[in-house]
């Protein structure tokens, strides 16, 4: 029979070996039951791979959807709007003679498949008259906007490069022109020149340059104060070289955008002046004349005489605005890479 000391030594040894033995038993593979084969490592590997493959993988960054980039989308919108405007002008020029032809057997007809915009009190097709009027308004706006843009470019460059006295004179003239409402000054100029096509065109050209002139003056002054312009001047570049290689590329994008955005203002003011009776003559198709004549027939229920030409004018102005906005996004360095 073991003594008390021997029993104490055996219990201490078992307590010291217990954790190691428990870890060894835990690390051993479980014994298979009698009659059942234990799974091997080769059969357990495919099951582990299948469980890993079935587990959902978190997606940190979803792939970008395929489609047109912002730059291509903007360019497509600009080209599409320009193509629509060209098509409207071409259709209006081609429909000029037919727009003035009368047929009293077809007068006062509501919109239908044959006459989408209806007919007026003289049997004239309103769709053809609207297209002819839009083409006239676009041509007037194009000529007036180009002349006004040239005036703005000349005065803006003179104010920025001509010294303090010239700058003060041009700034005073800009403030004076902007202090007078456009429509009032336009009516005065058109009436003084005998109204008609050239009266409206000259009036628009002489009244729409101040905003663009201020933009050109600010751009030229900013270019003159820039570092690259000062370095080119220090290196001995001539005035022609400075204007060609630095001023023109710096001012040209803003000038083109301003020129495009002058078109809708010119078209709307031409229609407004003609509507008031100080613009194009009644025998010439124009949106202002169509809207002015339709006022006498709205009370009789002939709503299509004013609704469709007015909507066509708004659509034409929105096309010009789309072209100008798209060009600004494409040309402006701040948004060209978006």
Keywords:
13 helices, 338 residues, MetI-like fold, mainly alpha, single chain
Helical stretch tally: 13
Low-confidence runs (pLDDT<50, min 5 residues)?
22-45
Structural class: mainly alpha
Q: Encode the helix/strand succession as letters.
A: HHHHHHHHHHHHH
Q: Based on the coordinates given, report the CATH architecture of the domain at 79-99 and 117-331.
A: Orthogonal Bundle
In CATH, the homologous superfamily of the domain at 79-99 and 117-331 goes by the name: MetI-like
Write a brief caption for the model.
The chain is mainly α and 338 residues long. It has helices at residues 4-27, 41-54, 70-94, 96-99, 126-161, 164-179, 182-192, 196-207, 210-224, 227-234, 239-276, 287-294, 304-331.
């Amino acid at each position: 029979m073991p003594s008390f000391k021997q029993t104490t030594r055996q219990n201490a040894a078992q307590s010291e070996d217990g954790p190691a033995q428990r870890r060894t038993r835990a690390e051993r593979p479980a014994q298979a039951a009698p009659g059942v084969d234990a799974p091997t490592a080769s059969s357990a590997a495919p099951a582990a791979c299948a469980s890993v493959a079935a587990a959902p993988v978190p997606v940190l960054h979803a792939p970008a959807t395929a489609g047109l980039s912002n730059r291509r989308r903007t360019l497509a919108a600009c080209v599409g709007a320009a193509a629509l405007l060209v098509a409207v002008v071409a259709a209006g020029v081609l429909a000029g003679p037919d727009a003035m032809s009368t047929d009293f057997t077809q007068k006062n007809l509501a919109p239908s498949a044959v006459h989408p915009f209806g007919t007026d009190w003289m049997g004239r097709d309103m769709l053809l008259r609207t297209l002819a009027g839009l083409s006239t308004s676009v041509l007037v706006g194009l000529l007036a906007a180009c002349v006004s843009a040239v005036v703005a470019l000349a005065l803006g460059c003179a104010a920025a490069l001509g010294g303090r006295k010239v700058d003060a004179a041009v700034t005073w003239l800009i403030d004076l022109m902007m202090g007078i409402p456009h429509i009032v000054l336009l009516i005065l100029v058109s009436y003084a020149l005998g109204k008609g096509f050239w009266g409206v065109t000259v009036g628009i050209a002489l009244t729409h340059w101040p905003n663009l002139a201020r933009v050109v003056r600010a751009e030229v002054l900013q270019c003159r104060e820039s570092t690259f312009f000062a370095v080119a001047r220090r290196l001995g570049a001539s005035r022609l070289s400075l204007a060609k290689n630095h001023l023109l590329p710096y001012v040209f994008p803003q000038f083109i955008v301003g020129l495009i955005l002058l078109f809708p203002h010119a078209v709307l003011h031409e229609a407004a002046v003609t509507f008031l009776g100080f613009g194009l003559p009644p025998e010439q198709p124009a949106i202002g004349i169509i809207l002015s004549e339709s006022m006498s027939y709205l009370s009789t229920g002939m709503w299509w005489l004013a609704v469709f030409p007015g909507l066509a004018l708004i659509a034409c102005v929105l096309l010009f605005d789309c072209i100008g906005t798209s060009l600004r996004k494409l040309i402006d360095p701040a948004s060209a890479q978006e």
